[in-house]
C-alpha cells in the first residue's frame, strides 16, 4: 500500500486534517448521550424507544457500508471525506423540521442520515490513518486521533446539555400536573431548543467539507501489495477468505456496542440513580476523559514499552472488572465504574483496526467496509440494554456488557491470529 507523494515530513499535515475530522465525528457522535434523555422527555418515550436514537444512528453504518465503498472508489479518499461531511450536514439540517413539529421519526431519520455520512467518513479515515505510517505504530497514531475524537466527545454533551437540559429536572416535575394542552406547549418549547445548536453544526460541517475538498491530502493506494503480502494472498478472491478479518468485524461490533453503552447510557443511568440531569450530563464527559487517559498512555507506551496486542488484552480485562464493579455497587460508585469503562475501551479501537487489516493487501477497502459495518453494534447492543432496562432495571441491564468483553478478550488473545498461519 502506498501513499502517493507522501514522505515522513508530510505525514503531520494529513494527521492534522484527519484529526479535525475525528474531532467532528466525535462531537456529533457523543451528542447522542444528551439527545437520549432530551428526546425521552420532549417526545414522551420509554427507555427502549429513547435508545432508538443510537439504533438509528449506528444502523446506518451497516446499511451504508456498501455505499461508502462505492463512494470511495468513485471519489477517492480525500473527496469521499468531503462527501461524508455534506451528508452529515443534511442529516443535521433535518433536526430543524423535526424540532418544529416535535416528530420523533424525523429526528431518527436525521440521525440515520448523519450516521450514513459518518460511515463514509470512517470508511475513509480509519484505514487512511492506519496505513499512512509504519504498521507497528498504527495504534499510536489512532490513539492520537482518539484524543481528538474523545475530547470532542467530552465537550459535546456539556455544550448541547447547556442548550437542552438546563431546566429539564424542573420540567419533569411540573409536567405531571399540566393539562394536555399546557404539556404540549412546554414540550414544544423544549423541542425548539435543539434548533440553534444544530444550525451551528450544519455550518461547521459545510465549512470543513470545503476545507477538505480544497486541501492537499495525499491519496493512498490500497490496491498495491508488497511481495510477502502478495504471495500470502495468492489465490484469494474474497475478503471472506480472511477469518481474522471476520472475527475482527464481530469484535468491533461488540466493542462499539459497549463503548456506546458507556457513553450514551450514563446520563440516563445516573438520573435513575437519583442524580439530577443538570449534574448527570457531565458523566459522559467523565467517560470521555477516562478514554483520553487511556489514549495518552497508549501514545506514550505503544510500541516502545508494550505491544498493541498486549494493551488490547489488558483493556479487555479492565472492561470485565469495571462492568462487574458497576453491577456490584450502586449510586455514584456504580456510575463511576461505568465512566471507567472509557479507560477500558480506549485502546480497543486502535488495536482492532491494525490487527484486522494485517496482511489483507488489495482487500483493504473491502475489509475496511466490513469493519465499518461492525459499528452497527452501537445500534443493537444499546437497544438490548434499553429493553433490559425496561424489563428489569437500568442497573441490572449492564449485564449485557459481560459477554461482549469476554469475546473481545478472546480476539485480543488469539482470535486475531486465526487463519494467518496458513497464509505464511
TrEMBL record:
The chain crosses the membrane at residues 12-31, 51-72, 79-98, 104-121, 142-165, 195-213, 245-270, 282-302, 311-329, 335-358, 370-389, 395-413. It comes from the Bacteria. GO terms for cellular component: plasma membrane. It is a multi-pass membrane protein. The keyword DNA damage does not apply. Pfam families: MFS_1. Belongs to the major facilitator superfamily. FHS transporter (TC 2.A.1.7) family. This is Glucose/galactose MFS transporter.
